[in-house]
Amino acid sequence: MPKNATIGDRRYKSRMLANERILGVEGGGTKTAWALVIDGKILESGRLPPSNFRLTPSDQLTKILRVMPGEVDRVGIFLAGCGTEEDRTRLIGLARKVWPKAQIIGGSDRDAGVAACLRERDGIVVNAGTGSSVTGRRGDHIEKAGGWGHILGDSGGAYFVSIRALRLILREYDLRRGERRFAAHILGALALNNFDELVRWAQTADKTEIAALAPVVFRAADDGDNAAQEIINAGATVLAHFAAAVATRLELKSPEVRLMGGLFENRQSYMEAFRGVLEPKIPKAQIALIDSAPEIGAAWLAANGSLILRTEKAQAEAEIGATEELHPTSGNLEKLSARKFAEFFLGEEKSVERALRDSVDDLGRAIELVAETIQNGGRIFYVGAGTSGRLGVLDAAEIPPTFGTPSDLIQGIIAGGSSALRRSIEAAEDDERNGALAIDERDVSGRDLVIGISASGRTPFVLGALKRARTVGAKTILLTCNPNRSASIKVDLAVKLATGPEIIAGSTRLKAGTATKIALNIISTGAMVQLGHVRGNLMIDLQPTNKKLRDRALRLVTQLTGCDRATARSLLERADWNVRTALTENERGKH
What we know:
Blueprint: E1 21-27, E2 32-38, E3 41-48, H1 58-66, E4 74-79, H2 85-98, E5 103-108, H3 109-118, E6 123-128, E7 132-138, E8 141-145, H4 158-176, H5 183-190, H6 195-204, H7 207-211, H8 214-222, H9 226-250, E9 256-260, H10 262-266, H11 268-281, E10 286-289, H12 294-302, H13 338-348, H14 350-358, H15 360-375, E11 380-384, H16 386-403, E12 410-414, H17 419-422, H18 432-441, E13 449-453, H19 460-471, E14 475-480, E15 493-496, H20 511-530, E16 534-535, E17 538-539, H21 547-561, H22 565-574, H23 579-590
Parallel strand pairs: 1-4, 4-5, 6-9, 9-10, 11-12, 11-13, 13-14, 14-15
Antiparallel strand pairs: 1-2, 2-3, 6-7, 7-8, 16-17
């Protein structure tokens, strides 16, 4: 397809060569989806972090592209924010640095969406994702509405829904000191305590973070909140008006109208609200959801419209891990009294101690690897998904205040990012390339150590991170509760905690979670002791940032020096409440 060809240009076709590797990429405010197609079959596909061409820095966008398949013949890359010919040229130039030998076309995510929904047919595509847009085609004539970005447009997208809800909550508070029924749910979803914190969060939140609140608004509407229902109806209404305007300009009397984007695909009520407004305006409109993913539309464009998808991507049979097996004696949990359940649960926890004791040699080696890495100027990275990821982030967060280490010395990486700390984002763990990208984003090097945490031992996000870490020369540890894990990757050390089947099959927040938390405590605390952050059993590098911790610092100094509290306070105040410095100054004063 020549450089100036558009989504409405049907003149350019070529016969596909057998075995051509075609990569389709579609990116927006929520994700970057990609698919590798060979001979009409999806060989591989995945989802990576968002890639809006206007909002994502070029270096970060390049990192995202570099973790995709490298050996390809054709690439179709279509990103939100790529709206002008200059944008298209820059995007193709950036992609060419990643795939220098491939034939590359590029453009807006709108292009990929229309290709996925309509192929060569006439019709209208309505996209309601993080942002929104309406695109219609009749022959080579293209008409558009919306899609002006979140500051001036995006009416009907998730950002539109969320920002209106936030403004409504604050307006109701200002006028009546009252809260809408869903205000508490908004605060809860963000782990915030009051409106002042909400305002501060909104001032720094990006478009995607705000748009992620849309499900909370939909739940409020489902529960009967009138204001939330009005916001949702307003979004669906403006999109229907845009679609009707586009149909009029194109003179389409009975258009095929395809709906795409998370709001339509995940919220039946939004689709019905849209239908309720559009059908009276265009009674013969054929309204339906998209039946082909946008990244496949991108691949179709890369193939000059000659791609015919024959089958869906084959799914490999999942290996069943120890934590997924059925527990032999927990099949009647609902019949137990509360006390009997507690007794049964505690009895099962004995396997946690057994698993840890059986792994004591490996835990000791893990302590040594962490201490050696830090002594040699390296950093520690915990990588996990779901419960495992949260436990890693928790342990990493607790090290600096306890042992006075820099905040970037031990870092937690969780699939799905910070949002996954508050709510489940299970699909975030499914792509190995996402894990590799997380390693690239943090510039992990040969001096560092990456600890993958996976109860099953087969979480793709974790395995991808460990593989990438090894390619850059970093040391690697896998912490798993599946001792029979298939050896799909090599690591420097595997700590296998044989906790056995969970009493609720597959719920790794139970025994596996407990064992993992203790193992992380052992490894990080042991390393800090070896590195001299503890004297006896006292943490001499704690950060006394509140009244309780300052009181603890006073006790530490009095215990270690034998002085009274007044002297200890004087020492600490002169040392700016640094316990280690206060102890050093006290020793100097004796000589």
